[in-house]
Amino acid sequence: MLSASSAYEAIQRMAGRRILVIGDVMLDHFIWGAVRRISPEAPVPIVEVTKETTFPGGAANVARNLSAFTPNAYLMGRVGKDSAAGELKRLLNDEGVNTDPMLESETLPTIAKTRIIARQQHVVRVDRETIEKLSREELQQITQRLETMLPELDGVIIEDYGKGFVTQAFADQVLGMCKVAGKLVTVDPSPRNPLSWHGASLVKPNRLEAFAAAGIQDHRTPGPPLEDRRLLEVGEQLLDQWAVGKVLITLGEQGMILFQRELPPHHIPTFAREVYDVSGAGDTAIAFLTLALASGLSAEDSAEIANQASGIVVGKLGTARVMKEELLKAFED
Prior knowledge:
10 helices; single chain; globular; alpha/beta
């Protein structure tokens, strides 16, 4: 286990890393309020609004997590020419994320998700989105921008939410370019978008995504993850299926399990103290995993940092990020 001093040194090294996040970006809109009565028009609660907040979501939340630890966090995704895009860029720029690589669509809206929260209870979610695959022209723009940026980067994160931005042609192009340049590239996949990740340094699915990708039914065997035969089978299969060197499966309350070629599986138990909201935990995990790997840490130590960071963020309500002081305190405790 990493000591507090080792974690401090790792965090210091993170400040110099330059990371590009590419993937589905969105705006998370929260409406907060209280419920005191049921509507006379239908059997639904009436939410009396007290405040509204907005946060970067999807791949934008990954970049936001990075920006608390490095001033060199870049984001490439697709937004529309609308007020949601302006709000998203403003939020990201205020938190130190460079949005210059973003693509603007003439026809598609910026993806936005509105969550209505009453007394910390999630009442309903309203999505505004048009799912459309990346066009040949957009892929060309990505290729040109990545080619310009790649020499200066320490790592690339592909964040797939299954909204159309990440396609097989996209994955092949980005992974191929990163491999030729010798750059670290990590992937957070979507179960709705099964792709080949050949050439990636590491792929990080959650348990549901891992079993779906492997085509194996999950019986949720009780007991320690290292004794879960089907889970171990899935991890080993995905190493070959995706043709990657490392697969990290996040397991919620059971932490994470790391699979590497020629090495036994490595389990990292969870560090979550209290769970309020699991939304964004995967974004936090891939952000810190990549930052740590780009800073020269081993896969095991990188997974531990990612696990600690995820344990902090699930203790917060809404789309949240981890700060340096919080991560250091977690290792000191």
